[in-house]
Amino acid sequence: MPDYNALISFLLKPLLAHPEALRVDFESNSNGDRVWIRVAVDPEDRGQICGKGGRTIQAVRTVVMTAAEEAGHSARLEIFDPNPNTNSEEHQDRYSERQEFQQEEVQRPLINIEKPKRREIIT
């Protein structure tokens, strides 16, 4: 079995501002042919790990999946997010400002539109 911990550390540590925060956890199924790998990093480093458009993490996934295939395994790599439904305070501040701005723009005067009257057709 490949040393996934060493492989991922080798690939990701040069990208991190806080390399000491890197945590790699992996588990496999009972047959040992599937491996799930979770990577946790400092929240400030998440952007560096993902890269522009997710290209960096996709390249790391490709390398890990290739190493797993050589060993006869199937691998899945995930970035662990301890707070998946919350954003950074800075992002939330910008988002709330944007929402307030959009709400101000959206308010428009109401226009009363009468429905057309129904005509009876005489045959």
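The record above closes out task 2.4. Task 2.5 opens with a second protein, given below.
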Amino acid sequence: MKVLSLTEPYAALIKERKKKIETRSWKTSYRGELYIHASKTCIPKKWKDNKELMNLVKESSLNFGNIICKCNLVDCIYMTKEYVENMKINNHQEYICGIYEEGRYA
């Protein structure tokens, strides 16, 4: 079984189904089930200071150093300028839960 490590609060947001798209600088051809691992890394100050992001997750639901859920990877999409703009306008919650930049993957 594959495992994807995420820094909190992103792992908890996936577990709580408030985040459905993970953004990365690399693509994958893998499709299927994978576990989400909440890394031991502390939440960066930049993210903690983002009230809009942090208000999406309850502090009590944060985990560090644990596999917290299983999900299904169904696609890997190259982000175009249009894709990023569409996410920003039409899916704001998802947009604030990732790094949406042209040339990355969702």
